[in-house]
Every structure is written in C-alpha cells, then in structure tokens.
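hey so i finally got around to running the thing on that chain from the lab meeting. sorry it took forever, my laptop kept dying and i had to restart like 3 times. anyway pasting the input first so we r on the same page abt which one it is
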Amino acid sequence: MALDRDIRLLASVPFFQGIGPEAMKLLAFSAEPREHIDRDRVFSAGDPAEGGILVLEGRIDLIDESVRPSRMVERVGAGSLIGEMAMIVETRRVLSGFAVGPTRLLSIRRALFRRMLENYPEIAVLLKDRVADRLKGLAPQVGRIGEAFGAIDGHRAPGA
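ok and heres what got predicted. didnt touch it at all, straight out
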C-alpha cells in the first residue's frame, strides 16, 4: 500500500525520527502528493515556501539561477526533505528545483505541520531540541564567516 510506503519513508528522514506512528500516519495521509515529469520546475528561487517537500521517488536538482550560467548545487533523491524549516516558519526558496526524470513528491504544508505540533506537543519539544543542536553546530561556522569579513574590512570580528 502506498500510504504504508510513504509512512516508512517519512520515518526514515532524520527530521521526522522519533515522531510516533499515529502522528506519522496523520502526516503521510494529510500531506499533498505531487508528480512531475523530467525537467519540470518544482519551485523557483524567491518563491514563498509554503512548507517542506519530501522526495518519495525520483530526484530533484537544486539550481542556483542567480549566477550565469546557472549552477547545480545539489541533486537530492528519495528520502530527501527540502525546506524543512519552511514547515515551521515563513521563508522563501533559496534555490530553484527541477525534476530529474519522473518524480513523486509529498508536500507538507506549514499549516498541516503546525496543526501536528499543536496536537502532539511532544513533537514540538523533540524538534526544538533538534533545531537547537543544529544551531549550536553552526555557531563555529558563523564565527569563522564573521572573522573572514572582519579580515576583509581590516577589522577584527567581535570576540576575536
């Protein structure tokens, strides 16, 4: 059954790990399936991101169209979640996405995900901790970027 397969794939995505089976079933059932053919534009850079997109089958090329010629940044396949933060906060797509061959996606709208967080508060706690850990991991990288800009401007970054 397709729903069972979608639930298993959702459960394998690190962002969703630890979410209980009842909530996972609701998520898989309520998300919007989408299908694309080869070279379909799935989304464009600058578009409002209405939520996350899970690749169920096929692949998506993530393209930076702000440079000439356009540059492929990454190719993601089944089990990849694109725009996970868009399920929580309003944001815009940074890159454009194009289907590579026949591609099946699951669109997880922010409104659906927020409703899940309200109905299953334990998910909110789990994700808060996960996002906090990710931000802690980014702190050294942000510090190095600040130092690099400080060196370019001839100044030292605060705390350097």
